[in-house]
Amino acid sequence: MGPSQKPNVCRRLSRRALGFFSRDAGVVQRTNLGILRALVCQESTKFKNVWTTHSKSPIAYERGRIYFDNYRCCVSSVASEPRKLYEMPKCSKSEKIEDALLWECPVILELGHSSRSHCSQVSSEQRLSIGPAVFHVLPFSLIGILEINKKIFGSVTDATLSHGILIVMYSSGLVRLYSFQAITEQFMQQKLDLGCACRWGGTTGTVGEAPFGIPCNIKITDTPPLLFEVSSLENAFQIGGHPWHYIITPNKKKQKGVFHICALKDNSLAKNGVQEMECCSLESDWIYFHPDASGRIIHVGPNQVKVLKLSEVENNSAQHQISEDFVILANREKNKNENLPTVTASGRVVKKSFNLLDDDPEQETFKIVDYEDELDLLSVVAVTQIDAEGKAHLDFHCNEYGTLLKSIPLVESWDVTYSHEVYFDRDLVLHIEQKPSRVFSCYVYQMVCDPGEEEETTNRSCKKDCNNFKF
Fold first, then answer.
1. What end-to-end distance do the CA atoms of the chain give, in Å?
2. Are 407 and 381 a contacting pair, CB within 8 Å?
3. d(CA 117, CA 131)
4. Quick check: 449 and 469 in contact, CB under 8 A?
5. Is 426 helix (H, G, I), strand (E, B) or coil?
6. Quick check: pTM over 0.70?
7. Contacts (Cβ under 8 Å, ≥6 apart) of 384
8. Which of 43, 38, 15, 39 is closest to 27 using CA atoms?
């Protein structure tokens, strides 16, 4: 169990005003976020639905901004009621937004994939290649467009860049890793600068502007040195932990739902490294390395969330083991109709035995698990659907101990057959839902004081001010 003593917000504010902190540059920010966390999780704080909107095009959210109409319209969700920040002018039917750059990423950023080469002088075979565009973030600058063609890499189904690693995937389940730095050093034909004039293939134009675009300036003519390869079902592959480990599913269909956690240095299976959540459900459980960089692993099933830790085996520092850090269980009652006896017409008693699915909609089921890094909270969406109407609530758990700190009911109905996204960002909760016929709905909740409790604890002379006060 976690510490029982609650943080004193008044004391923290006083110490902040007096400057009672170490000289660590980030300590004031961490203190502010600690105060916000205490306010978010206190019993009297509520989250109120302040705005609801609907759209015929997908709705996206990123760090306090809501995007509509394929990123052409941007709305701020930080104010007491969302307000429009900007709206880009409509463009002709021959143009469209291919992708969007959001400023939250590693030093190297991949823009996206293209099903065709961005250079006008290539063969039909090369036009089938994958071409991710790659940028430096700070300062923002173009590295180039990388061509991954069939002659060099074979029948590639997908490719992506992450933390300086080129990851290439094949339909067979094979995943191969290459150093992107080594590739650029060896195969970059010409450096490009966005907005600057460039001569390419006998044509002169401005890099990044139509119709010149961005030439494909990184052409791999020979197989680059292979860093690592592994085979996994459906190309499922993740790297994380301390020291580095990876998670795969053995490349056989009957192994779906079985996860192997292995050391990257020698492919050895960690002790207790085979993780299988014994659940009977329509939707598969999922697993990933914890985003808090603690090296832990989150394994989510319909009725439980396991947080696993990676540690050295006692008396053997060369081997590592997997153990449970804590488990979050869904709030369920044993089905009352299970194994009830039935009396036949002849008077014979027959016991019927049946098992419900672990993700049966009439039982509380976990749908989304996320991590709020600034407040150090795990957010878990749990849903129960009775008859035609489903109800969901968002729970905040202590990231260190798993303790339930607060539960927020969502007022809108939750249909489990629809696609849902839920974001928890500081004092904001946002729910995006996709309904049939491409109707998208967005529900925004903001943290507020509970007016009912204010009336009971506040002097009448200042009741009006307190009721209108928002954090």
1. 29
2. no
3. 6
4. yes
5. coil
6. yes
7. 361, 362, 363, 364, 365, 390, 391, 392
8. 15
Q: What tokens does 21 get?
A: 């902190």
Q: Which of 26, 9, 11, 45 is nearest to 426 (CA)?
A: 45
Helix (H) or strand (E) holding 134: strand 133-136
> Distance between CA 305 and CA 327 in Å, rounded?
6
Dihedral angle at the C-alpha atoms of 68, 69, 73, 79, nearest 10 degrees? -10
Q: What are 187's two structure tokens?
A: 């195969």
List of long-range contacts for 241-246, beta carbons under 8 Å, 24+ apart? 241/289, 241/295, 241/297, 241/310, 242/295, 242/310, 243/320, 245/270, 245/310, 245/320
The alpha helices in 22-154, defined as continuous H runs, are: 27-41, 150-153
Q: Which two tokens stand for residue 322?
A: 């997997």
Note whether 187 and 180 are within 8 A (CB): no
Looking at this protein, which amino acid is placed at residue 109?
L
d(CA 309, CA 400): 11
Per-residue pLDDT tens, the chain, 471 aa: give them: 555 566 677 777 777 666 666 566 667 788 888 889 999 999 999 999 999 999 999 999 988 899 999 899 999 988 777 889 999 998 888 888 877 766 655 555 555 544 333 333 373 333 346 678 888 877 788 898 988 888 999 999 998 888 889 999 999 999 999 999 999 999 999 999 999 999 998 899 999 998 898 999 999 999 999 999 999 999 999 999 989 999 999 999 999 999 999 999 999 999 999 999 887 777 789 999 999 989 999 999 999 999 999 999 988 888 899 999 999 999 987 654 455 556 666 666 655 544 666 667 788 999 999 999 999 999 999 999 877 789 999 999 999 999 999 999 999 999 988 999 999 999 999 999 999 989 999 999 999 876 555 444 444 444 444 344 333
334-372 b/e (C-beta count within 10 Å ≥ 16 → b): eeeeeeeeeeeeeeeeeeeeeeeebbbbebbbbbbbbeb
Residue 283, token pair as written in the block: 């939707």
CA distance 334 to 22: 52
- Taken in order 366, 368, 370, 375, the sign of the CA dihedral is negative
Token pair of 339 as six digits:
């194994």
